[in-house]
Amino acid sequence: MEGLNPCVPTCTAPRGPALAPPAVPQLVARGNRYPLYQLGNPQLRVFRTNFFIQLVRPGTAQPEDTVQFRIPMEMTRVDLRNYLERIYNVPVAAVRTRVQHGSNRKRDYRNARVKKPDYKVAYVQLAHGQTFTFPDLFPEKEQSPDGSPGDEDIQDKLLEEQQRRQSRDPRRGGVPDWFGL
Amino acid sequence: MAAARCCRLKLRRPGLSLHTAAEAAVRAPEMTGPDVTAAPVARYPPVVASLTAKSKAARQRRVERWQATVHAAESVDEKLRILTKMQFMKYVVYPQTFALNADRWYQGFTKTAFLSGLPPPADPAEPAPALDVEALRAAACDCLLQEHFYLRRKRPPPLYQEREAVASPFLDQMVATLMGLLSAHNPALATATLDCKRPVHFYWLRGEEIIPSGHRKGRVDALRYQINDKPHNQIRISRQLPEFVPLDYSIPVEIPVITCKPDKLPLFKRQYENTIFIGSKTADPCCYGHTQFHLLPDKLKRERLLKRNCADQIEVVFRANAIASLFAWTGAQAVYQGNILWCEADVTRPFVSQGLNTLALTAQPLYETIEDNNVKGFNDDVLLQIVHFLLNRPKEDKCQPLEN
């Protein structure tokens, strides 16, 4: 696509666990440290980021221009703006983020707490008056009155074949398989 | 047995027994036969909803009782006190906001219809006053040069506030100068008060919501809003301006209704003092508004919005500021006159204030550049627009001759 620049400039350094530097330097990996920045250094550029985001359906009604994402905890709103603009060419007007605490209340059979992981939610408002509604992913299938050829036939055929494979040889006449003849 | 007799004696009601009361009721219409029948006297207290029950009727009765106390209060200060004494969580509405599409949201909160363009002149038959455009232009250029060139500043302005640091004193000076020059044409300005950066507050209720959590979860609660504004300059006069449209004017434009909760704007709730203030206390004779001047901070300037892909939000910022500030000021003026907007004592007469987002006329800048003691490309139209705003005056004064 023209104008597509997948290079994403980074801003802040995440505080991940100290790992040994890999042989091929991979910047902006979740859990890695960014290289130190000193005044006069060039802008850090990332070409293959390790951040992956999910578009989710909002739980409560949002305005039409707002899109809701679940993003990694180390990602900031500036990172997300650059990500969407450079990789997906989506113009972003505003980003707001919050961290959702995952419940630690459930307990398993040993009474040990079961933690659901925390995640960061980002509300992105699109620029230039664009709107977005989360699509209906599971629309109701309309069943036609006649047996018209379609996906249902193929599914039925597959089911029949599976049943035939699992059933015993009809020429044996109901005699079980362990009987020697 | 003696005790039982005593109880029976005590239980007997004083006054007429049931038998005699029925006889009186039967006889009463016979006596007043030919005349108009008098209304039956209620013998029991009126059957009304409970005050403390968890029901809609009970809430309605509590609200009406509170509104009745407000109406029954004699002075405006008492009314204000009753309206604002109970503090609850309320939405804080900021007139100068970076939120996207804020003007549509604010129109929904304040039930304002936005008509683009300036209002038509109130009296087209009246001849335009003879303005000394040269003198006005000279005064404006003087104010500009004073701030940009003549004045030597010791320390540089704080970071990201360069424009504001120069524009703010310039605006103060210009408004004061124009008021002085135009008081000859507009006698209302001669007796007007000029406020610089005086707070204007307004508190109102609109709509209802179900409380999501807490000990009052599931109950219906009113939505409360507060605007705390600080207009850069405002002019208050002792008589009211004539209205642009009559009170029962049907607006051709639709007021936008937003279906989401105000939290999505984003708008946040806080509990603090509820205030309604026009810039001075109730005893001030200059209690009607004339004009407000606003200066947008550098945070919301054009260049920053363009960098953030918000080119269509530039207009929105100005409109939201105008809607919120003028609603707050006009509403507060109405409350000072005793018209409580949401308490069914709706405004009986229209209240008018006008606002000017200076440096909001960005489509037509006031001047192009300032080079060394010279203002280049001064735009007279913009100055004349400001001047026409300031020349608006109350209706009674229009009958008086211009020269006194």
From TrEMBL, chain A:
Q: Work out whether the entry's keyword set contains Ribonucleoprotein.
A: yes
Alphabetically sorted, this entry's keywords are: Mitochondrion, Ribonucleoprotein, Ribosomal protein
- Domain of life, per lineage: Eukaryota
Q: What SUPFAM superfamilies does the database record attribute to this sequence?
A: Ribosomal proteins S24e, L23 and L15e
GO MF assignments: structural constituent of ribosome
Q: What is its subcellular localisation?
A: Mitochondrion
**What segments bear the compositional bias annotation Basic and acidic residues?**
155-174
What span is annotated as the signal peptide, if there is one?
Answer: none
User: What's a GO biological-process term for it?
Assistant: mitochondrial translation
Q: Disordered: where is this region?
A: 135-181
Predominant location category: mitochondrion
**GO CC annotation terms, alphabetical:** mitochondrial large ribosomal subunit
Q: Which Pfam families match?
A: Ribosomal_L23
- Please give the PANTHER family that the UniProt record associates with this protein: LARGE RIBOSOMAL SUBUNIT PROTEIN UL23M, RIBOSOMAL PROTEIN L23-RELATED
* Family note: Belongs to the universal ribosomal protein uL23 family.
What this protein is called in its record is: Large ribosomal subunit protein uL23m
Q: Which organism is it from?
A: Ursus americanus (American black bear)
From TrEMBL, chain B:
Keyword match RNA-binding: no
Q: Does the keyword Mitochondrion apply?
A: yes
| Domain of life assignment | Eukaryota
Instruction: Recite the UniProt keywords alphabetically.
Output: Mitochondrion, Ribonucleoprotein, Ribosomal protein
Listed under GO cellular component are: mitochondrial large ribosomal subunit
For this protein, the record's InterPro entries field holds: Ribosomal_mL37/mL65, Ribosomal_mL65
Mainly resides where? mitochondrion
- Molecular-function GO terms, alphabetical: structural constituent of ribosome
Cellular compartment(s): Mitochondrion
Q: Its GO biological process terms?
A: translation
What protein name does the entry list? Mitochondrial ribosomal protein S30
Say which species the protein is native to.
Ursus americanus
